[in-house]
Structures are given as C-alpha cells and as structure tokens.
Records
---
Amino acid sequence: MPEQLFSYQQLAEFTKTIFLKIGCSTEHANTATKALLSADLRGVDSHGVARLSGYVRLWEARRVNATPVIKVIHETPSTAVVDGDSGLGLVVAPFAMQIAIEKAKQVGTGWVSVQNSNHFGIAAHHAMMALENDMIGIAMTNASSLVAPTFSIDKMLGTNPICVAAPAGTEPAFVADLATTTAANGKLEILQRKNMQTPTGWVQDKDGNASNDPHALKTGGALLPLGGDKDHGSHKGYALGAVVDIFSALLSGANYAPWVPPFPAYVPMPAQQPGKGIGHFLGAMRIDAFRPADEFKKSMDHWIQGFRNAKTVAGEEKVLVPGDPEREFERERMKDGIPLLKQVVDDLQSLSEKFQIASL
Amino acid sequence: MPEQLFSYQQLAEFTKTIFLKIGCSTEHANTATKALLSADLRGVDSHGVARLSGYVRLWEARRVNATPVIKVIHETPSTAVVDGDSGLGLVVAPFAMQIAIEKAKQVGTGWVSVQNSNHFGIAAHHAMMALENDMIGIAMTNASSLVAPTFSIDKMLGTNPICVAAPAGTEPAFVADLATTTAANGKLEILQRKNMQTPTGWVQDKDGNASNDPHALKTGGALLPLGGDKDHGSHKGYALGAVVDIFSALLSGANYAPWVPPFPAYVPMPAQQPGKGIGHFLGAMRIDAFRPADEFKKSMDHWIQGFRNAKTVAGEEKVLVPGDPEREFERERMKDGIPLLKQVVDDLQSLSEKFQIASL
C-alpha cells in the first residue's frame, strides 16, 4: 500500500484551512484541528485527517453547524449538561471537558454530559486535557449503531469508547482508550486492504453467525462487543458499551442505541429519533481532592514500573502500559512525519480543489 | 452435586449470628449480612455465604477488624477518602457509598475512594444503594492478583469488578456488574466440579501459554483479562482492570497491583506492601443534576424495551438487559429458597460448632 509522509505542521495547516473554509471561527478551527490530528499522531489513523472529508460532507448535509453556540443548559456544582448546537464534536467535547475541569477545581470533580453534538475524534485527546491540571480525565462518546449485543442480530450500540487518563510522576501518563468492542472498524479496514480474514469474535454475519469476513458490516453483519461471544464474556463488553450510552445520551438528552446519527452523510438519519445529535460524557477528578498529587504520582510511577518489569510470555519483549503504543507513535510521527495512504491523500486533494486552496 | 435449600431468612439469621459472634456491633452485623447474602440472592454463589468461613478465618488471622472505626480522612464537596480501619468490606463499602450519596445530594455527584478495607462481596449491592435515591451508582474494588496482563506471565491485577446501576421507570433498573476478566474464579470452580475444560481465553498456564485447565491457577497459571488474548482485545480488559486499581487504591492509598492482600487467610501477605488493605471506589450521580429524573427514567424504559425487543440469533429467546439474570435469580430464590452445595452446608455447620450456635 503506497504511503506518503507529511509533517504534522503541513497537515495541521491544511486541516485548519478547511475548517475555516466551512465557516468555523479561528478559535474553533484551531481546536478542531488539534483534536483531529491527535488521532494521526497517536496512530489511530481511522480517526484523523482520513475523516476530514467526512466532516465536510456532514457540514454540506447541514448535519454539522460550523458556527455553533455551545451552551450549558443545566448545572450543579459538580455537573453540567452541554448543548453542542450541532457543532463539530471536535470543538464541543473540549468545551465540555474544560467545564468538567473548572468544576473539579471548585468542588473536586466535574462531570459533563453532552447532547446535540457530532463525532468527537479520539476520546484520549479530551481525557488528556485533565492531565496538565493534575487531574484524572475521563471521556466517552456514543456512536452510530454497528454493534450487536449478546444474542442479538440487530445492531443496537456504537463502538462506544471509554478513555481514562491518569498523571504519573517521572513516568509518562497512563492513558487507556478503548472501544467497547473486540475490534473497532479501523482494524477491519486494515484487514480489508490486506485481503485477510478477521479472527473469530470480531464480527458476526447478518443472521448472527460467527464470521471471519472483514466486509461483514457491508452485508448486514455486525461488530461484536468486547469478549466476542457469551462464553468469552461478550455480555460484559455489551454492558460497558451500554454504560457509555447511558452516561453520554440518557443523561444529556442525546440520541441513543440505534437512533444515534451515522457518520457518513449519505446514510439517512434513523427515523423517530428520541434525542438531539450524538452524546458524550466528560469527567475530571482532581487528584488532590483525594490525596496529595505528588504521593499519587509516586505511586503511579511504582505501579507503572511494576507492570513494565513483569515477566513476559515467550516471544514478547515487554508488558505494555496503556498509552505506551500511542506515545511511541506520537514520538515517531512528530519526528519523521505522518504517513497517509494514497486514498487519503487523494481525498484531501479533492478537498483542496473543492475549496480552491493549495494542495498538500 | 447434592444441594439443599434454605430460606433467605434462615441464612440471614445464621450469618448475622456469626458476625455478632466475631464481635461485630448489631448494626455492622446487619449491614454485613445484607451485603453478603445479596450475592446468594442474585445467583453469585461464589461471593455469598460460601465465603462466610473465609471472613471468619481472616478475623482469626487478625486481618479483619470486627470493630472498626471507619473514618473520612480527606474530603472536598464531591469527594472523600475513607479509611476502613481493616473492617469487613461488607461494612466499609456501604459506609463509603452512603457518603457518596450524601455528597451527590449536596453537589450533584459524590466519589469515595477507600483504603484499609477487605473483600466487599458483590459490587452490585453497593452500587444499587444509589437507585432508591434516583441516582446512578458505581462500585469497584481491587482484589488479590490472579490476572496476567497481556503479554505477562506475572499475575499483576485482581479480577477487579466494575458495577454501574441506573434507575429506570416502569422497567427494573439497569445493573451491569462485571469482573474485568473473561471469566471470574467462580466460573472456574463450576467447571472443576463438573470435570470440564474451560473455553480458550479464560486462563493461561504458568508459562503464559493458552490453557483449558480449570485448575490452571493452582499450578502457577493465571486468569486472563476480558478479551483473552491480544487479538481479541485482552489489552482492553487489562486496561479496565488497571483503571479499577487506580481509582480504588492509587487514589486512596490502599495496596495495588500484586500487593493486594489475598482473601484466603492461609496465603501469606505480599512483602513490602505499598499501602493499606484493599481499596474500593464508590460513586453516586444524582440524575436530576443532569436532567429531570422522570425524563431520564422514561428514556431508560424506552432504551431497555428497545434491547428486549431486538431480533435474536437462532436458538436464543431474548436479548437480555444487564441485571436481568440476577433479578430473576433473586425472584426465584426469595420464593423457593437458596440452594447450597453440600460442601458449603458442611462449612457452615463447622462454623456453628466453632461458635456453639444452633446449626442451620
């Protein structure tokens, strides 16, 4: 698969220009660019600039409002509900996370449920905003329904990711960012390109039978919750995805379950939607609301070193700590550039033509 | 396997008498009995009266303090750290959960991290305390290390369960209570008794190879994180177990990772423990800190009914909602009694002899 390398700066300038072209304010364009490109830096290629044209198409379809008035519509000292005014999730989620952080400064923790938003990129970007404030950050979002609960043929949940980021001292932060499915869509796309089968437990076919076809979603199949099947705990992955839906949408008044708006603008909106847009949930816990931050960080260092030094199974070099692989990607890509597949470069090229801006 | 039926009332009276005999106050004995037996009612047989003699042995070994002075040692409007004074987790966790609930009444949410505690029974019992207050309840605990992270031979985490309970309207509450492993120890014990193999992905042997031996833990093997192996997302189960450890112990100052005290009193304490006792994390979120409770509950009913009515795969009658199986157990067992295996009955019989009380 031919790939081309671009510097972070190149991609950031291009992306920001596109967001400005659809009408975002400079502030929003900066925020959205930073959120979107954090995915490319961290190696989550499915959620970065590869999606830029998808966001543009949502704007063209009037499903994304480029000039949202994002508002707190209800609050208590430790909670808020935010109405994203159909804005880019890339802008709405950082707004909501900032409120969570401010509340944590005041009363120890802050928890914000968001309605009327759109796809927010990677959860880690938002959760990690807490780190520089010596807080634990939490970010979740629901998403359009691609996942069949245990025993179900119907797709009832999205890949509904959960991220938890916790600061350490001399060690880098702990950052766990995971879809509540065995594998997310991005991994299927990699297998599709390589013409390979999926392991059992990733997808089922349209009748709910186990399948190894990475194209299963295109023929009525579904992604499976983390665990894969009942014997392997899929009811747990399903339960976790459900919790994300409840926190993100039932608490905020966003759409939930199979009614969450799809990302591709050509897919019609589900009928009889019970809420507004998609939902997120952001949380921040101030470490010293529990314990002096330096004590906590010292314990985190000890914890992390314990895992790094655990004895590995044959053939593996190291036990990883959540966040290690993504941080390694970020280091490499900041230095050497971000590789984009030809089809992504072509896609960005057509954006530059559409908006008559310099190509990458 | 011969089983004998006992009424809830019979088991509760017996259990309470034992807790009184080891020196608990009447209030603590009542609280502990209710927490312990909630496991038997909900069908989690591994966590109920089957463990009563285990708690007694911990008391005999002076690892459990029957007359703890449970204290808040740090707090903010939305957070607290509780020192359980080596008390029964069955008593310490409800104390901490009550504080979370009171804080949620005041500022919208309450979050309590607990140090210096012991095994707390099932997480659902504590999380569900929030329901009658129209709150979402969250309960987690760490536990002694039986679980090998992805790529590790060393056992670094406990089965570290997470429970989230959310109220509904006409439908029963949503209650997700899950160990962050593919399968918890209780399921291995069932297979041991039946002389059956485990599915692949539950355990590994002492060298980290895939195993199907339900006795693998006795020969140096380990439980596996939810997902089973890397291809099936075990790094996600590992990350979730790690989050439970961080919230329960790193935030509170309890022991973490391989240093968590073991439940069996004959297993020596890990050397160089970095904290105090085991750790829990309890949370409560007031629904109307986000949205009017009746609106939320109406949405929950709609959500639940959507899942119940999803099309099932061949051979399955119904898509279940988290909490359904346990509630069905509770209904049946309140009516027909709680079945105990002969070995559990014998175990309770020796307790009655030890404390010279009437046998069951």
---
Amino acid sequence: MIVVVCLNPALDVTHHVDAVDWGGVNRPRAVQARPGGKGLNVARTLHALGVDVLVLGLAGGITGAGVEAALRERCVPAAFTAVAGETRRTFSVVDGSVAGRGVTAFYEAGPEVGEEELTRFRRGYEQALEGATAVVLSGSLPPGLEAGTYATLIETATAAGVPAVLDTHGEALRRGAAAGAAIVKPNLAELAALAGRPLDLATATAAAGQLRGAQAVVITLGPDGLLAATEDGCWRARPPAAVPGNATGAGDAVAAALAHGLVLGRPWDERLRHAAALGAATAAAPVAGEFRRRDYLGALSAVTVEEVR
Amino acid sequence: MIVVVCLNPALDVTHHVDAVDWGGVNRPRAVQARPGGKGLNVARTLHALGVDVLVLGLAGGITGAGVEAALRERCVPAAFTAVAGETRRTFSVVDGSVAGRGVTAFYEAGPEVGEEELTRFRRGYEQALEGATAVVLSGSLPPGLEAGTYATLIETATAAGVPAVLDTHGEALRRGAAAGAAIVKPNLAELAALAGRPLDLATATAAAGQLRGAQAVVITLGPDGLLAATEDGCWRARPPAAVPGNATGAGDAVAAALAHGLVLGRPWDERLRHAAALGAATAAAPVAGEFRRRDYLGALSAVTVEEVR
C-alpha cells in the first residue's frame, strides 16, 4: 500500500462561462466540483494504475466533508484527520471567449492548523506506515504548520523502513530532502527558486545539489520531460511531442509514477520512462489527475531515456 | 410563526482580492461563505427582528449541507427537503483595486428538481402552514420546477387561511399574483419586464394592474423607496438619503418587513414606513440580510409616507 499525505486538500470548483462580464453578473454554462490539491491528484493517479492507496490528510468544515464525499464517490480510500478550520476551495473561471489562456483562478489558503491537530494526524500516519511500501508527501502546507513538518514525517517513515517521495517547494522541500527523502521532485522553477538563480537544462543537474540528503532528485521540465540525478547516475527522459491539454496534474502523475516504480523496484531508466509517459498522458487529458490508458501506453513506447554523464 | 419558502437556496462565497489578475492565479486576502438566496435573507431579517420563523426549502449535496450548517450556526430554524441535485453556489470576487463597482459575480443555476421531490416538500409545507401566521415565498425557482409552482403553494396557503407574500419575477410572479397572494413585491425592473415597457414613478402604479389577483402590489424603487397599490389605497414611502452599502438584501428586508407588518396588523402607512426603513438600514449594512438596529430606528423617524391619489 502507498500512503499519500495531503495536508492541504482542496475542493476545486470550475465555472465555464461563455463570455465573462467582469464587474457584472455571470451565469455559468457548466459547473464542476472535484477533489483537488496535488496529493489527491497523486492518489487518483495511483488508484487508476490499480495501486492499493490510502490518502491521509487534514480536512475540516463543509468543504472538507465535500472533499471526503468526492473521494468516496471515486472509490479512493482516505482517512482524514478532522481539523477545526475550513478546508480550502479553489475557484477557476474558464472564459469561453478567450482562446487559449482564458482561465482565472482564485486559491484559498486553507485552514489554520494547530499543533494538537497535527499530533492527531501523526498518530494515524504512524499506524498507516506499518502497512506501507512507500509514502508520497505532496503539495503546500496549510497555514500554521512549520516548514519542517514534511521533514519530520519523512524521518518517521525512514525510521519505519518506508521510502518517501516528496513533491513540494521552498524551505519545506529543502528540509524534506535533508531529512533523507528517497526521491524529491521539484520542477525547474522550484529548483531555481531554491538555487537563487535562473536555471536551464545545462545547469539544472548541478543545481540539484541544493537538495542534499535526498537519494534522488527528479526535475520536471514540463513538455521537455524529466532530468534525474540519482546515486546510480543521471538520466534524461524525453516524452513524445507535447499535445494540448491540462498540464496542471502532469507533475502529480510523475510523482505517482516515481512512487510506483520505486515500490516495483524498476531500474531508474524504466522508472523514468513510465513517469514521463504518465506525465505526458495526464497533460493530454482535460482533467487534472486523469489520463487515458491508450495515451499512457502510446507514450511509453515513444519516450526516450538516455544516461547523462 | 412566519414560514419562509426558499426553493433555491445558495451558499454565497465571496473572495476579496487586492488587485485581481484576470487570466492568472489569485490568492484572496479574505474569504466569506454565507447562506444566501433571497428567502434566506428574508428569514435572517425576520429572525433578527425577533420573529418566530421557519425556513422551508430544498437542499442537496455538500453545498446544501453547508447552507443548513450555516443557518444552524446563525440559529435560524430550517427544515429542508433533501433533493438529489447539488444546491447552488454563488461566487463573488471583490476587486480591491476597483473603486465602487469592483464586484464580479458567478451564479450557479441550482439543482434540477423532480416532481417527487416537490411532492415531498409540499407535504412538509402543508404541515407547517397549520402553525403559520404568514408565508413568504422568495427568489427564483430551481431548474425543473414549472412557473406555476408558487401559485399552487399560494393557493394551498390561502385555503389554509395563511396570507402569502411573494417576491419573484416573470411568469412565476404573474401566476402567483393571480393565485391570490396577499402582497407581491416586484422591483421596478421586474414590473417593467411584465408590462413589456419601460416604467417610471408616474406610470408604475398603473402597471401594477399587470399583477391582477394580488391584494396588494408593493413596488421597490431602490433608493427612491416604495410605491404601494392596495385595496385600501395607494401610498408612497420615501426613505432618508441613500447611504453607500450593499443594496443586494434591501429588497429582501422589505419583503420581511411587509410580512411582519401583515402579521402585526399594522395599517398600510405604518407597514410601509417600517418596510422602507428596514430596506434603507439593510442597504447601509455591508452584508446582505443584516442591518444595524440603530440604522433601522433612525430611518423609521426619517421615512415619509404619503397617500397617492
């Protein structure tokens, strides 16, 4: 079983409007509400791959109940720790009159989480680790939790013999790596922010040294694929030509595939091939956290992986 | 007890953003979620006046549960009939960088309601009428319910000896009036839409004839107050000078005050004085459905009411 930690889940609400009247009253043509947040995308991807998964996280208020109900509906097993605050919503407006980038998004920050609530979460987490083959920790921390939260959770997992995959940014990422994560998965912008300078393909691998302590750093390059710096060597995976779709969940699909490959004991080149293919298939699907099996299998044979020296 | 019928309640979510980046990602500075829909504003106003009130309506899904929880929190008694669809959200973005009218609103339509669900609602409605002194029917109908829905509910109330106050628009308003509503409360635009021509203060009273069957027509004129055409005569109520605030709930406050005055047996001039004052006090408050007692009492002595011949 892979445990997916989602400390700041969301209910993603999307309104599709034919032509938005800014400053006026709009009546959306279509409305979608889905469980969101990076961790939940990872969990849904693993679930779709047929992996036994358990979501752990914090949920509060009516929006938290909405996230739990939506996961139940999708048959994704989850056990949230109740918090007093209200789980966040993200609200996206898709303006049909704007070709291409017509999406305006509003992200709530999430509930203020207290020490006692995190302690209750940790109790369930430690219990779940007993049956876990890996843990994925994904997304931002809710307000009130300190940057070392993921690091502590990774130390607990490592002590229990469970490898951890971490996908977050900033200080929480740096400290999570230092705590001995098996894999950290920044994107190029997140790595550049840590390095304090712009990065490109040529300089990215060296900058992965910012994440000392992690056994492997996998950098997502968007449509350019993946770059991995591991204890066994460095690799570059290139997906087939990019297709239009929704890139939002692609990085989460990569994190899911990396955890899956880790559990299966796939060698790094195969692990990256699957990760790049699943990322590409997810980017091609209209909804974050979903992919077409056909796209995944097609991409698998089209991805090229080469060792970088 | 006054029964307030709210067939299409809403959860009103407001995001306050310092300066909206249209087409980008925004992180709101403040988030509010409140029970909304005209009927719920009426109920909250009556509750604040100290009136014994019961909200009846349709609620579904996690958003319906959110509305119910929010009303419980505000101690407003409610008994919703569960529907399979999802109760609607309204989503408003307040752009802090735009002086004055910086609000963009997105209104979901509400759940598709089936015949069987309305039948279950009617059962609870008939029961509640036994203890009711008046019923207020407010707001739009959810998708799936026909325009005659309010008319049928008004006939049932009238047969039970309970006078009905109706605040809606279009065909539902016309048929509700024809069914014998005690008071209908269109605004000038709603009346003009029914009359099929633009209206002003001089022509509005005559156009009230569009609403044949109602015992009284009270037309709200925004900051210009009220115009009433009743079986006892016609009146005009003028509020004190308009103050900046939130006009959204002002019409609902007028409906609440009219129902309250009806139950108390206030003569029409006094009924209108209270309605205009409560409308003005609600318009002056920042949140729909709320008012400051001080503003209400102050407005009461400032409103002028005169009979129109």
